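Entry type: protein chain
Record version: 2
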Amino acid sequence: MHKISLFSTLALATATLAAPVHATTYELVTASEVEWQHLNPARGDKSPGAGTLWGDRNGSQATGYLLRPTDGFQSPPHIHNVSYRGVVISGVIHNDDPDAARMWMPSGSFWTQPKGEVHITAAKGNNTLAYIEIDEGPYLVKPASEAFDNGERPVNVDATNLVWLSASDLKWNSTAAKDAGIALLWGTNQPGQLRGSLLKLPAGFQGELRSEGDELRAVIIQGQPGYRPANTQAQTRLSPGSYFGALGESRHSLITNSDTLIYLRSDAQVQIRTAK
């Protein structure tokens, strides 16, 4: 993971009194740089691959990682000790009760899995990939016999059932491209509270994402945008599964040559500005 700190100095309050200096740490992991491990080491090669994008799946903190199952994969019934949410990047994925009819979710679909609930996960496709996110760790796989009800209920939303809002209709995005769209997935828009959404940018978009919050995490779901953080002039082409983010106030320039879908996790409203 690339990490670079950008110092933004606030204006002097007086000739002799300077405001404090705050550091923004930018992060970038391209899909080709992901380091793969077994999601469940106990199952060895029968386990899907897992590649951490940010955080630490084996630690106690929030984490985002990629899930890479093989074509035809189906897990045995099991539970997890923590809840998670997922977004399908490629291929199709089914995640539900062991006896549920198959509901194959394509790219851009969103689902949640409550901790303690028995379920199976299955996949079809030679290049199936999904983004998985937890708010606390460690992420563990446990037998179905240890199931419990924590009060949460699962959500499966096919990509065709997402509700899209025009980004320019949102009061904090009045300058956004009219063809840009946002689908709100989870959380709240209250200041300082975490929330997740999907951002849809049209081909030919040139602009930037701006965040005044303490955290922004972004994962490319579809498209291959050119990306440049505010602390460099170098542009990087990001393929699906790539991640960029920042801790602290940040700006991220994007140029798209095809329709692009990006998952966003933030604790503040993300502004979408077109280039002038």
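Comment: The first strand starts at residue 2 and ends at 9.
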